[in-house]
Amino acid sequence: MKKIADALVEIIEANASLRFGFHYQILNLTQTAHFLKPLVEARTMKEVGISALVMALSRYQKQRATALSADRFQIDQIRVHHNLVSFTWPKSEQIHRLVGTCFKIVEAEAGFLTLSEGMNEITLITERRFVEPIQETMDLPATVASHQMAGIGVKFSKRYLNQPGLLHLILQQVAFQGINVLEVASTATEFVVYVHEEDAPLTFDSIYQRFCTRD
Prior knowledge:
Layout: H1 4-13, H2 16-23, H3 29-44, H4 50-63, E1 75-90, H5 93-108, E2 113-117, E3 121-127, H6 131-137, E4 144-156, H7 166-176, E5 181-186, E6 190-196, H8 200-211
Antiparallel strand pairs: 1-3, 1-4, 2-3, 4-6, 5-6
């Protein structure tokens, strides 16, 4: 049967927010114990008392608490893509075909483009200079459009691919600044956060200072 301390370590180490809270000692341990109680009981298969959890959390905070710091996660590259626009259409075969045409238009000019497809929608993000040809190509008006966007793209090493909470930690830095994230996109080792153009400098600085510089 799994011990309480072992279950807590597994839960905390897999959650970037909890690691951050313990690292900076900003968590109320009693409230955290109430929050973690059902998770710990599911792993240990037994009822766990709050006082026992608080004691275990206190020991963890003193002995093993770590955050995903710059020493554990370092961004290799970061850049800003300015003057972007975003269009979203309902997904259909017709839209697929027309979006494919838009892709070829942007590709021919070596432009920036991101395509995202959900269950019911397709979103295209590209440079503002392509607005006119895209609007001429698409038969249907976009259901949602944004014309003042910027993308902050980061590239990181493949060794971080199995790091729990990696993308969450990047978004956490943006959220702490109260910045509204409009869209996100990712590949295996790249992640792009799309924000309003006016928020681009603060977004860049927040990510850069956290993951691209060392103390």
